[in-house]
Design brief:
Blueprint: E1 10-15, E2 21-26, H1 32-44, E3 50-54, H2 58-61, H3 63-66, H4 69-74, E4 77-81, H5 91-103, H6 112-125
Parallel strand pairs: 3-4
Antiparallel strand pairs: 1-2
Length: about 130
Amino acid sequence: MPSTSGSVVNCFALLSRSNACWFRTTRQGVTSALVSQWLDSFAQGLTRLTVIVLDNAPIHQDQGLRRYLRRWQELGLYVFYLPSYSPHLNLAEVLWRKLKYEWLKAEDYASRESLGYSVWQALAAVGTALTI
């Protein structure tokens, strides 16, 4: 299969134990500012107290993101950081593994458009047609 350069799709997802999936995809680089913006958007729609679990990725630990913590708590969103070196506790790691190795097919990588569409379709199906 021919490869294409620049066919990157970056994803951010929040996955509940009941397989409810809230996600965002982008072709740009994911920064702490972008993650903060996405989490702020998520927090705006909350109707009950919610705890999200983040790993210790540098963009999750950035001071820019941490500036929002008090605001999010006022909206009912609390952030819990996993202990270092504990990817086995991170449900999102299972999501990414299934996405990359089970749900996407080789032909999905043929072009930037097909990859973006296939990733979006798979993440949108989590909780209905696809489950963890």
